[in-house]
Amino acid sequence: MARALQLAKNGLGTTAPNPAVGAVIVHNDKIIGEGFTSPYGGPHAEVNAIASVTDISLLKEATLYVTLEPCSHFGKTPPCSDLIIKHNIPKIVIGLIDPHEKVAGKGIQKLKSSGCDVITGVLEKECREHHKRFLTFHEKKRPYIILKWAETLDGFIAPEKDKRAKNPEPVWITGRYSRQLTHQWRAKESAILVGTNTILDDNPKLDVRMWKGKNPVRIVLDRNLKIQGDFHVLDGSTPTLILTEIEDNSKYLETVDYEFLDFSGDLARQLCNILWKRNLTSLIIEGGTKTLQTFIAKNLWDEARVFRGNTSFGNGIKAPTLSRDIKSSRKMDQDLLNYYRND
Predict the structure, then answer these.
(1) Are 166 and 310 in contact (CB under 8 A)?
(2) Is the confidence at residue 180, as pLDDT, over 90?
(3) E-strand spans in the chain?
(4) 176 CB contacts (<8 Å, ≥6 apart)?
(5) Which pLDDT score, from 0 to 100, does residue 107 have?
(6) Residue 161 clears pLDDT 90, i.e. is over it
(7) DSSP secondary structure letters along 130-171
(8) Does the pLDDT of residue 72 top 80, yes or no?
(9) 71 pLDDT more than 90
(10) Would you please indicate which residues are annotated as catalytic (active-site) residues?
(11) How many angstroms separate the CA atoms of 290 and 296, rounded?
(12) Burial of 330 (C-beta count, 10 Å sphere; 0-12/13-18/19+)
């Protein structure tokens, strides 16, 4: 199962809204096949693992280890449980029961009804951690939410306006390694969120140019459609959704998508509902302070990743505040990265 979890990580960022599952097939204590979920619409982990077995006659005496319950319904692909039954694999070891309403124990029941020996709950805690995005999406009906920001030694997230360049561009607090890690994170998530001021001040691309992977969907809060002109989020290079209170199609651009948001209401919950309806299973929020603090205030977040750079501003925009203890820390060259969990 530990090996299946290793394999499963290869699918993060490409399988959503499907889970990134790992599967291993063992015969006489030897791995004869393994696989992980292909990008969305492609074969699931069990299918890829079975396809990798050289001598399929061994499957009749093998054990299949899988991080999540095999599906029992037709979606983009046929049910994995049917394929397992077809190849007469006698023993199935499952890390976690699938909470999806179309599965939720039905795959296990189908396997047992066909005479398979099914064991569940193996490395369940580790499987829950790996499948946290998928589980949060189906159990809480919202995306898994990661807060991310960088702050100076004296607790600022950005300098005062008069200390910035005339043209909108980022003011770097962290070093190259930290920025590259952020791009790696982005490649694993379905969407990325920033507020209006972050776009106007920094003109970020919100992509994964420093890492190989798929760009997350860009989500921008722009109440009054202040973002106009030559900004990267309007360039059409990556799917982009702007949430606004302006319901005037004549002000909408063809390069981006728009949806109404009541900014006088519960902003965080509304946004979660919109992303849930759009099948976006995870969200990384990168600023600014007002946007981040909105989700903190509503307790709508799952983990926070906070860089502390080796620099000071003296004054500027204060970083968000979290009333949680640091879960763990790591050094990134000259930077310190602190992790928080909202358990």
Answers:
(1) no
(2) yes
(3) 22-27, 30-36, 63-66, 91-94, 117-120, 144-151, 156-158, 191-195, 217-221, 240-244, 257-260, 282-285, 303-308, 317-318, 328-332, 335-341
(4) 333
(5) 86
(6) no
(7) HTHHHHHHHHSSS-EEEEEEEE-TTSEEE--GGGS-SS----
(8) no
(9) no
(10) 46
(11) 10
(12) exposed
Nearest-10 crossing angle of helices 267-277, 289-297? 90
Task: Tell me the whole-structure pTM to 2 decimals.
Answer: 0.94
**Which tokens is 246 given?**
């302006």
Q: What angle do CA 239, 14, 30 make, to 5 degrees?
A: 180
Distance separating alpha carbons of residues 287 and 164, to the nearest angstrom: 17
For residue 31, the tally of other CB atoms under 10 A from its CB is 15
- Average pLDDT for the chain: 94
Tokens representing 184 are 């790696």
**Cα distances (angstroms) measured from residue 124 to each of 118, 169, 218:** 15, 44, 33
pLDDT band at 79 (very low <50, low <70, confident <90, very high): confident
115: tokens are 């005479």
Whether 203 shows a pLDDT value over 90: the answer reads: yes
User: How is residue 78 written in tokens?
Assistant: 């046929």
**Cβ atoms 312, 155 nearer than 8 A:** no
Cα–Cα distance between 298 and 316 in angstroms, integer?
A: 25
Q: Are 274 and 261 in contact (CB under 8 A)?
A: yes
Q: According to the model, what pLDDT value does residue 104 have? A: 72
Encoding tokens for residue 8? 């499963």
The token pair at 53 is: 């077995």
Compare 19 and 169 and report the one with higher pLDDT: 19
